[in-house]
Amino acid sequence: MMPRMRIAIAGDHNGLLMKATLVEWLTADGHQVDDRGTHGAEIVDYPPLCADVARQVLGGHAERGIVIGGTGGGEAIASNKIRGIRAGLCHSTFLAEISSAHNNTNVLVLGAKVIGPAEAVAITSTWLSTPFKGERHQRRLDQIAALERGEPLH
Ligand SMILES: O=C(CO)[C@H](O)[C@H](O)COP(=O)(O)O
């Protein structure tokens, strides 16, 4: 059974409907969901939303974060600028599985112009329920953390 988690979720204007679908599904599935916005249809910038979700995760208020954009590309770039965030842009359940198993991602990024709501639910479910494999993958995440600190890799 999938562990129940505290999840911070955000999306820009493109992600509004998909966010509503995921909030409903996650809540029905027993997760504690914190919807960080946006809440209206007006056009907004996504980097502050990415930063907000990252803050929730890094501050321990949420175990995982989800960010939704049009394609999600910019959201992944923005999220991965923040030290300690490993954000995976996943547009298939296979990518979601590897994102958790190999990359131990703490933020899932989705693109509402790329996939539909049913795929978003399947991807999110896979991402949440797939455990991190550790071992050689942990070594690589340690190397990524060293890059974040500006240390050279040999
Ligand atoms: O997915 C995104 C970035 O990767 C954004 O949702 C997208 O760029 C927003 O564009 P617009 O303001 O034209 O809707």
Automatic annotation (TrEMBL):
Keywords: Isomerase. It comes from the Bacteria. The keyword Zinc does not apply. Transmembrane segments: none annotated. GO terms for molecular function: ribose-5-phosphate isomerase activity. GO terms for biological process: D-allose catabolic process; pentose-phosphate shunt, non-oxidative branch. Pfam families: LacAB_rpiB (PF02502). Belongs to the LacAB/RpiB family. This is Ribose 5-phosphate isomerase B.
